[in-house]
Write a structure and sequence with these properties.
11 helices; two-stranded antiparallel ribbon; about 425 residues; alpha+beta
Length: about 425
């Protein structure tokens, strides 16, 4: 009978459903409490200690958007005296596998990309299969986690098979590059607004090209570092920030930055992707040979640390004499860069003013002034970026969704 009971699932034994009770699979854990010194002196019946034995067990919980999260059971924080099941039991749990896969995000996007929203499918990756590989306990990553605990973020290896897409270097015209960048911003906005997903890793390598029926479409690829907007409170801190360094928003390089990651940070990353491409390349596939002066200084952005990048990006945003050293092939992007940079500069100036106003209000015990941190008080919003990017070199680019086509009718060009 005991042998057969061991074969039952946890819920069959009256244990919490979805609990992977590791102690039930270990013969040593099944000894009576009297044989286990740490529990022999405990108050109450031996069965009362089952929760101490369950430390380390895994528990699957249904989460939002049809996803599953797995938590690991830690120690008991509080347990009512009396019969089990008739009192409150509080146990600490930690997230064991809470990284949402790119496939999960894309499945949610496909659910919503119907009717007037179907256009966005041309700008998202088509994923056929994904797999995850956890690091075993013998790996350096696991050892770092044991040593540094919460100061070290455990990762996993994730792979996928998806439709083949082309890199930016495959494009042959500057207008084609502009259309791809504009497409990516439209796609990013749709994902932020409807499935409420924030990408958080805009880089040149994650902006790809799909060719379909002779037309090119910009594709925003690699959503593995994305996050649901409702999960922003679980987002990166000053220890765990996401992004590719040369393209990260300037604020993220500061040691004092603790999040949250906002959509304007991704839009600022688009600005840096464009800046580095048009200053470091003669064409999408031909890199500049190092000159004495000019835009080649941005090559150092791929090699330096956060302190260096914060200073350099500060020069770009705040130096009154700054101008982009755009190569002739990409000359039309100079207007984009100067206009977007001006919007960012004004927004950060407004943020500095707001911080001073907050200090004054605090000193005088007055009501705190309001400020829209997502858009730098509307100086750097989706609308401002789209009003710049919908036209390149006096040529109207393709606005994909009907929502933005209607919006553009009422937006002034910057």
């Amino acid at each position: 009978m005991i042998k057969q009971m061991r074969a039952l699932p946890p819920e069959g034994l009256g244990i919490v459903p979805n609990l992977d009770a590791t102690f039930m699979k270990d013969r040593k854990s099944l000894r009576s409490a009297e044989e286990m010194p740490q529990y022999a002196a405990a108050d109450g019946p031996p069965s009362n200690e089952i929760f101490e034995w369950s430390e380390g067990s895994l528990f699957d919980i249904p989460y939002k958007n049809k996803t599953i999260r797995t938590v690991r059971v830690k120690r008991v924080l509080f347990r009512s005296n009396g019969i089990i099941g008739r009192g409150t039991i509080v146990m600490r749990v930690v997230c064991n596998h809470c990284n949402v896969s790119e496939q999960t995000f894309m499945d949610r996007c496909r659910e919503l990309a119907q009717g007037d929203h179907a256009w966005v499918l041309n700008h998202l990756p088509h994923i056929y299969w994904t797999f995850d590989m956890q690091y075993s306990e013998s790996t350096p990553q696991a050892n770092f986690k044991k040593k540094f605990k919460d100061d070290y973020e455990m990762r996993l290896m994730r792979g996928s098979i998806q439709e083949e897409l082309r890199p930016l270097s495959s494009l042959t015209t500057a207008t084609g590059c502009a259309q791809v960048f504009y497409d990516v911003v439209q796609c990013h906005h749709w994902a932020w607004k409807y499935p409420q997903i924030l990408h958080r890793d805009i880089s040149q390598g994650n902006i790809l090209v799909r060719e379909k029926n002779g037309e090119i479409y910009g594709v925003l690829n690699d959503w593995d570092l994305a996050i649901w907007l409702n999960d922003q409170r679980d987002g990166p801190t000053s220890k765990f920030r996401t992004g590719t360094k040369p393209y990260m928003a300037r604020e993220q390089h500061g040691i004092e930055w603790e999040g949250p990651h906002r959509f304007r940070h991704d839009l600022e990353s688009v600005f840096y992707v464009i800046l580095l491409l048009v200053c470091l390349y003669f064409s999408p596939k031909v890199k500049v040979v190092k000159p004495a002066t000019g835009g080649f200084m941005y090559e150092e952005w791929h090699k330096q640390d956060d302190q260096f990048l914060r200073g350099e990006k500060g020069n770009v945003l705040h130096d009154a004499n700054w101008e982009p050293s755009v190569t002739p092939f990409f000359c039309g992007f100079a207007l984009w860069l100067t206009t977007l940079r001006r919007a960012l500069r004004r927004g950060f100036a407004r943020l500095a003013d707001h911080k001073e106003a907050m200090e004054e209000a605090l000193e005088r015990d007055q009501e705190m002034p309001s400020f829209d941190y997502d858009t730098l008080d509307n100086y750097f919003s989706y609308e401002k970026v789209v009003s710049v990017m919908h036209r390149y070199d006096d040529e109207e680019l393709k606005t994909r969704g009907s929502e933005w086509r209607k919006t553009l009718l009422g937006l002034p060009d910057l």
